[in-house]
Amino acid sequence: MKETFDTNPANYINLYNPQFMVGSTRKRRQIIHYPRLDTVMMIEDAIRSAKEYPTKAELLRHLPKKVMYQTFNLVLEYLQRSNKIIVTKDGGIVWVFADSEKLRRLLAEGKKV
Question: Which class in CATH covers the domain with range 12-109?
Answer without folding.
Answer: mainly alpha
